[in-house]
Automatic annotation (TrEMBL):
Transmembrane annotation, as ranges: 12-38, 45-66
Keyword Ribosomal protein: no
Keywords of the record: Membrane, Transmembrane, Transmembrane helix
Entry protein name: DUF2393 domain-containing protein
Top-rank taxon, per record: Bacteria
One Pfam entry name: DUF2393
Skewed-composition ranges (Basic and acidic residues): 316-333
Segments for region (Disordered): 194-343
Extent of Polar residues compositional bias: 206-231, 263-281
Low complexity bias locations: 232-262
Length: 343
């Protein structure tokens, strides 16, 4: 018990201890005043209850101030699971200090939980309570670092021969301000993240393996424009070739319409000589609009589509090859296994 208490207090900085002492003194003052005014129960009883509640709430308030104010961190999990083809667990994440104090280290805690999905009744609620109070297994490791306010750092932890593949787990990272790094310990140094407004440098691997959405959209727009231009050119050529024939046919139709009423008038004059021939007003020939031909696909468009498809297939094969190499490097990576903390 003494060793656990000393180990717990070793993470506190001097101003953390001052904060806890101040809350404790306030609680003791209320209890002391309740003893002074013990003859007046209306005053003494509420003061004693307030002091007693402050003593009970002291660890919870201190924990909240340390985790949510002084050493608050934002964690971006990149990888947190067991490998598919080997019993190796790996955690990769990025820690950003968004609190009020500089961080001297963090505790990486990997907790194996009880599986409550298969339990029922009292056992289920018991295991749910134990998952918060005392999990099934706990693996802790101190990670010394020098992380100022606003800086970030990436961490990676590996556990080989992982025996809890199918069991639920929880990973927590809690940071502290007191330096505990030894002489031979490697201290991680934080770095400033670039602001979100600035564009990050392009990754050559991504640009070589997978085409971006912008390039794909631009190529699609250029192909569409080329297809439209070719179809318009072919349509204009067809219109120019058919224009004389259309005008000639329209003139023939107009002359026929002009001759038809004259023939009918000749027959009418032979039947009745007294009837006068009707004068037909000449009609202006109407030019019919040229027919619109459907757009035809040019051979250049098919060649461009085939070349774009071949480039995409080559990029996809390169991406798969890079992913396979990265998976082999990750499987060959070996780091000493974490030790289980004493329960």
């Amino acid at each position: 018990m003494k060793e656990k208490l000393l180990h717990f207090t070793s993470y506190f900085h001097w101003y953390d201890i001052v904060l806890m002492s101040a809350f404790l003194m306030i609680a003791l003052c209320f209890i002391f005043l309740s003893f002074i005014f013990f003859r007046r129960k209306i005053i003494s009883i509420p003061m004693f209850l307030i002091g007693f509640l402050l003593i009970i709430a002291l660890p919870f308030v201190t924990r909240y101030i340390l985790e949510e104010r002084f050493y608050k961190v934002e964690i971006d999990e990149i990888y947190n699971k067991v490998y598919n083809y080997s019993d190796v667990y790996q955690y990769i994440g990025e820690i950003t200090n968004v609190g009020k104090r500089n961080i001297a280290g963090c505790v990486f805690s990997h907790q194996i939980l009880y599986d409550t999905s298969k339990d029922s009744g009292f056992v289920k609620y018991k295991h749910m309570l134990l998952n918060y109070v005392k999990p099934k297994h706990i693996y802790n490791k101190d990670i010394p670092m020098s992380l100022n306010v606003g800086e970030s750092v990436k961490i990676s932890q590996v556990m080989e021969d992982y025996p809890h593949r199918d069991e639920p787990f929880r990973t927590k990272i809690e940071c502290y301000g007191k330096g505990k790094a030894g002489e031979n310990d490697k201290v991680l140094v934080g770095y400033k993240k670039p602001p979100k407004e600035e564009a990050s440098e392009p990754n050559p691997l991504e640009s070589a393996t997978t085409p971006s959405a912008e390039n794909a959209e631009n190529s699609e727009v250029s192909d569409t424009n080329a297809t439209t231009q070719d179809s318009n050119a072919s349509q204009n050529a067809n219109i120019n070739a058919n224009a004389p024939n259309a005008t000639f046919e329209s003139t023939q139709e107009s002359t026929q319409t002009l001759q038809t009423p004259q023939d009918s008038n000749d027959f009418s004059t032979q039947d009745s000589i007294e009837s006068t021939p009707q004068q037909v007003e000449p009609q202006t020939p109407q030019i019919m609009p040229p027919p619109q031909m459907p757009p035809q696909e040019s051979p250049q468009d098919s060649i461009q589509d085939n070349s774009a498809e071949l480039d995409f297939q080559a990029a996809e094969e390169a991406r798969k090859e890079e992913e396979r190499k990265r998976r082999e490097e990750r499987d060959n990576f070996r780091v000493p296994m974490l030790k289980e903390a004493p329960r």
